[in-house]
Specification:
Elements: E1 7-11, H1 16-27, E2 31-36, H2 39-51, E3 55-60, H3 66-80, E4 85-88, H4 103-131, E5 133-138, H5 151-170, E6 175-182, H6 188-193, H7 203-215, E7 225-228
Parallel strand pairs: 1-2, 1-4, 2-3, 4-5, 5-6, 6-7
Helix pairs in contact: 1-2, 1-7, 3-4, 4-5
The chain binds NADP nicotinamide-adenine-dinucleotide phosphate (NAP).
């Protein structure tokens, strides 16, 4: 158990890749706050981890609502005393050509993938500046290279890298901020968007990389975007 006494928030932790991340970090003994909009999923994943000896609390919240984000951050501090790691995993996307995408779809993707990451960083960084911390923003391979039919999603994931690089230069040396850019993962949105294609990664591999960054942060440089494929 290499993360005992660490408190970690995993957004979008109720299903998809986030569920694997929460479970993997739970195995290392971390205190985990699992948050997403769907109560049923976050309760289920918390129960699964706690049955194996973990310490997880589910807190419902929408990353696009600043009041919800404040509520989750405050509840994590109240429950566990501090926040050591934030994994900004919650995400949304659609598969459409740019000219078919509606303004509402554009806003939804940007709100979840960019504003949500912004809100969490905004409210967690001042807390982390007090004692140190680590933020892992889940971008994507599509955040390094524009992918046809994922133009708005790609733009949102490029933006996550921009937030990561700029904020990494704004914070003190005791706060590390990293973007993780996985290639296609055999779960969640990839399976919904590309049911006919084979993914490059399994969700366990992404969770393992997140765990490695949490356990060995010294191996990674703040501001970097790390591709996995
Ligand atoms: N799958 C891939 O191939 C792949 C590859 C590279 C990067 N990624 C990135 O990895 C992350 C997870 O992807 P996934 O494939 O696991 O997606 P997913 O299965 O669609 O899961 C998305 C997660 O985000 C949560 N979420 C969505 N909107 C939210 C909101 N407004 N507030 C709070 N939570 C919200 C969802 O929970 P609720 O709906 O219950 O809120 C869910 O837990 C995303 O950031 C995605 O862009 C995925």
């Amino acid at each position: 158990m290499k993360l005992e006494d660490k408190t970690i928030i995993v957004t979008g932790g109720g299903r998809g890749i986030g569920r694997y991340i929460a479970k993997r970090l739970g195995e290392e003994g971390a205190n985990i706050v699992v948050t997403a909009r769907t109560e049923e999923y976050i309760e289920k994943v918390s129960k699964e981890i706690n049955e194996e000896g973990g310490r997880v609390v589910p807190i419902r919240g929408d990353v696009t609502k600043e009041d919800d984000v404040k509520k989750v951050v405050n509840a994590a501090i109240e429950k566990f005393g501090k926040i050591d790691v934030l994994v900004n995993n919650a995400g949304a996307g659609i598969r459409k050509y740019l000219w078919e995408t509606t303004a509402e779809e554009f806003e939804e993707i940007m709100n979840v993938n960019v504003k949500g990451v912004f809100f969490y960083m905004k409210h967690v960084i001042p807390e982390m500046e007090k004692h140190g911390g680590l933020i892992i923003n889940i971008s994507s391979g599509a955040g390094k290279e524009g992918i046809p039919t994922l133009s708005v999603y790609s733009a949102s994931k490029f933006a996550v890298i921009g937030l990561t690089e700029a904020a990494a230069r704004e914070v003190g040396r005791n706060v590390k901020i990293i973007a993780l850019c996985p290639a296609s993962v055999n779960i969640g949105m990839f399976k919904r968007f590309f049911p006919e294609e084979r993914a490059v990664l399994e969700p366990e591999e992404v969770a393992e990389k997140v765990a490695d960054i949490c356990i060995h942060p010294g191996k990674y440089r703040s501001g970097d975007s790390i591709e996995i494929y």
